[in-house]
């Protein structure tokens, strides 16, 4: 139990995690920053500003670099533990199986929280702005709002909540990929960068806007068919593949000490 508490602190309360949270929040806010001066006029709605931070704004950068944000907190920790000989102490206190299971899920949690922090902070800020200066909740239909309507969802706050949950799921997936990459490359920097490279490569190889093989499909709800299950299935497959690679690759890393 003490080991689990210590690992939680390392994953969720480290300086790198704080940087990832700040970066995610700053990049999301940057997506609607140009509209802030229009908030008091009532011409910009909460939902419009939120979707500009998510996937619609000209200055939206979170959609580009979120794989790095997902991997920053903990994806390289397995390799770092081996380099620092920390695993020698950990394996005395717990089994290798328990260590890897805890590592995998805490890494996913850290990545999910880091990516979801941006839209969550954005939703809070815009909700406060609505209360203080009377911003309208929704004025005009955006492409993303119409996609939600196709799914039978009309409540703006439910739309924003789903985006937060979707980005948590997306962060979990990419941080899992990063952990798998770490045991293949055995390099801390590549553990963070390779998921971004994979994200870019799939976008080049599968440029079709609705292709499920373009990994932006996992982030952007406008892509693909208007259903939840394809994202869920593809995400689960990627998480399982990452877990298998991490399990097998981790054994080779352990044996190479």
Automatic annotation (TrEMBL):
It comes from the Bacteria. The keyword Membrane applies. Keywords: Membrane, Transmembrane, Transmembrane helix. Coiled coil: none annotated. The keyword Transmembrane helix applies. The chain crosses the membrane at residues 19-38, 58-79, 104-137, 157-181, 188-207, 227-248. This is ABC-2 family transporter protein. The lineage of its organism: Bacteria, Bacillati, Bacillota, Bacilli, Bacillales.
